[in-house]
Amino acid sequence: MVTFYVMCYRLISFSTLLHGTSSGISLQKPPFLVAQASPKRHRFEMAMWVPFHVTAIVLICIVVMTHPSERVNAEPTQDRQALLQFISLTPHANRVQWNASRSACDWFGVQCDSNRSFVYSLHLPAVGLVGPVPPNTIGRLTQLRVLSLRSNALTGEIPADFANLTMLRNLYLQNNHFSGEFPAALTRLTRVTRLELSSNNFTGSIPFSLNNLTHLTGLFLENNSFSGNLPAITLNLTNFNVSNNRLNGSIPNALSHFPATSFSNNKNLCGKPLQPCTPFFPAPSPSPDVSPAQPVEHHHQNLSTAAIVGIAVGSAILALLLLSLIIFLCCRRRPRRAKPPAAVSTARGGDVATSSSKDDITGSVEAAERNKLVFLEGGVYGFGLEDLLRASAEVLGKGSMGTSYKAILEDGTTVVVKRLKDVAAAKREFESQMEVVGSVKHENVVPLRAFYFSKDEKLLVYDYMAAGSLSALLHGSRGSGRTPLDWDTRMKIALGAARGIACLHVSAKLVHGNIKSSNILLHDATHDPCVADFGLNPIFANPVPSNRVAGYRAPEILETRKPTFKSDVYSFGVLLLELLTGKAPNQASLSEEGIDLPRWVQSVVREEWTAEVFDAELMRFHNIEEEMVQLLQIAMTCVSLVPDQRPNMEEVVRMIDDISRSVSTDEGLRQSSDDPSKGSDAHTPPQDARTTPRSDTS
Ligand SMILES: Nc1ncnc2c1ncn2[C@@H]1O[C@H](COP(=O)(O)OP(=O)(O)OP(=O)(O)O)[C@@H](O)[C@H]1O
């Protein structure tokens, strides 16, 4: 501007010279600053000064208005450098010709603010940009409000210096090949309202720190490879899409109002608006919506009187039929009311109501119809169906009757949900069997807490036994790093399991039907055993345990096809052999055809290699040989081929108890004789030698 002004000045000075009025005017100083030679000349110069400046200003205005590209000195110099550096380092299509001799504000895709002092927006969609965004280029456009690099072939990670674009409102980076984790820099752009990162190769989790973007209304992350859980994004979003990623877990409540298409095609996302989260639960049946494509027809305008009378009569008949049906249902349920299922209480949504108390018929019908989660008496849980639906679930294992899940509810309660398959029993039959099963209360029995029955799903809810199963304890991770299961613990498990089964047989008159080491579960710290999975055979079409449990199956079952108390004793005998030998029944033989565990033990004992029978891990403990042999004898009686030669479970309990008792008596005697005051035998082994490996004590 100053240069231009001086030029104008020269122009006007020259014109005054032409008029022979001002030969001695210095070019360095304006005329009004020059020492005045004479009053006449001064007057002349003063007279010339005003028109000179007015003319200069007018000329400047004309030039500026007619040649905007030539605006004097209006150039975002810093941003220009950054842009030039970006384009020189990034291969691009010919369309992007940024002429260095022109202002950056006039370049293709670049927009400056009204003062042309900074780059306001950069739009370079589909211009063939290839490769990574060079660091320290775009990140220097600190006043940028809009950045669009969409639909190019940009690769690599978003540079960390994007965090400097703090004025950014809209960021369009979709349809590129960007990769890496969610760009942490973007979570600092607190003014961003629209963030489009879709159709790239981003991986890793979607950060919770997106909640920093308090102005965000549109978040588009679809068609990437984001994984993990969806964070609870509590922003005021109006557009949201994470479809076609690898997300799993439940959809946070804060996002559940978006349509299913916002979440579709993920690895394992669940919860509203998608399927309920618990894999052991059925999807809600689709609501009978009237499709908008099928407009409801309105015929009533043209209905004749006869038709109206017909409809009225039809409706009355229908109402009467419904009424009769309700009365019929009520009457059918009346005997149940006279003798209510003492154990059953029902719950929904956390409200537990005891059906044996007020038990009005309508409520009972409703409960049945609504397929509630039915809690059994003495229940310690207060959750309802909805809570179970929202729980996170992990598969514990697939068994012969279905799949078991460890379900962790939102309040931290952990239960096991067994999803039964191929149940043959009808609803009432199922319910009454579960009431019997649920009525069993014993410290060595895993209590059934609740059940659910619908046409599509049959679920059982049990306590979660944190120490897992005897099977896992005996056979899991054998070898280095394993803590051997000591003899006392094995004896405790044998006795506890026997007591649990005896309780089923004697108190509940229930055949277990599926005794095996994976159904002996252990309390966390104490390793106290609990018998699981009992009393379920009657609800299946084929009550004979599958081949999976062939190793525990009593031989007569092949013929009778019905588990009995005595076949339970046989299975328990096999379980004792498993405890003694450390071998899983199905792996007892080396050959494919196999000899089962009882027969293998029998053959070894016959050959008088009894010591070979026992688990090598047990050989490390002191003073247990006699007890091991005694337990082996009990086991062998249990696995007698003839059912009548087997003891009943009460006898088994007594026999095992006797071993334990004799041990404790011996221990007591030993202890008293160890007492120095009573003159102990110095060679008596210390008390803990039974649970301590030899190597440690020798
Ligand atoms: N209440 C529970 N607490 C802890 N673990 C359990 C519980 N119930 C079952 N499990 C474990 O879950 C796994 C699967 O059990 P599930 O009962 O479904 O099958 P299984 O015992 O292997 O076979 P089956 O169905 O023939 O009894 C097993 O390893 C079992 O020990």
Automatic annotation (TrEMBL):
Record's keyword terms, sorted: ATP-binding, Leucine-rich repeat, Membrane, Nucleotide-binding, Phosphoprotein, Repeat, Signal, Transmembrane, Transmembrane helix
SUPFAM superfamilies for the chain: L domain-like (SSF52058), Protein kinase-like (PK-like) (SSF56112)
A matching Pfam family: LRR_1
Composition-biased stretches (Basic and acidic residues): 667-681
Transmembrane spans: 46-65, 306-331
Molecular function in Gene Ontology: ATP binding; protein kinase activity
Protein known as: Protein kinase domain-containing protein
Domain of life: Eukaryota
Major localization class: membrane
Lineage, top ranks: Eukaryota, Viridiplantae, Streptophyta, Embryophyta, Tracheophyta
Region (Disordered), start-end ranges: 662-698
InterPro entries: At_inactive_RLKs, Kinase-like_dom_sf, Leu-rich_rpt, LRR_dom_sf, LRR_N_plant-typ, Prot_kinase_dom, Ser-Thr/Tyr_kinase_cat_dom
Organism: Psophocarpus tetragonolobus (Winged bean)
Cell compartments where the protein resides: Membrane
Assigned GO CC terms: membrane
Every Protein kinase domain range: 390-660
